[in-house]
């Protein structure tokens, strides 16, 4: 009875100074952002976005500064939170937007929840899943899993989730963030199969805020990538250059990390697991490759085109 819903918050936030507690579930999680600059003296210039939801809809929540190293790894997709002493700000207009698994969910895009160390000092409580009650009306985490056979029909920039058996993983490569800057993105290429097509998923996996997983992607692991974006080269023959790339909200999981994740209930994930049980491990092992240089998208066949 003492709670406020996200919907009520959006309608009444301007007329309030103190806000009643919120009970929400984390549906999406962005990578950790470092915004430090040499001339600014800040201890912990970190920021992370989460999309949280209750029965009324979904809203962005921002974790600031020293709260990031303290809480970032504990706040997983699916985690239920009780929030007290938070601030409300108008939304930052240029942030990336994940694609909700439930297309019917209402999105409150004008404001965001801000969690700070002080002014006011936010209180974050993680509610264990076993005590979460159905009558709280919190939405379940929903996904948009696709199979490899469905990929060829999807448009450029479409958002999806995939599961596959890794058959190739390339070395970590670097690309400059800006042409003459000193910052780099770290990424690696991977192939994963799911038995629905002769072709693998071609995945461009950027290092998200999960270094432990990123470094351990290897052949024969079950790989789940969420919030991936379809990339098509529309100038060449579209089918040959279709691949998936990570977005700001992508999460990656490999064998050993799957237990307890919300996607384990998904039908397509269950179908994939059934398919893997029909495969001979030694046969698949012979087809796997690791490391080496992987030029993709491939350069044209003749030099003039290049």
UniProtKB/TrEMBL annotation:
Pfam families per UniProt: RADX (PF17659)
Descriptive protein name: RADX protein
GO molecular function: single-stranded DNA binding
Cited InterPro entries: NA-bd_OB-fold (IPR012340), RADX (IPR040893)
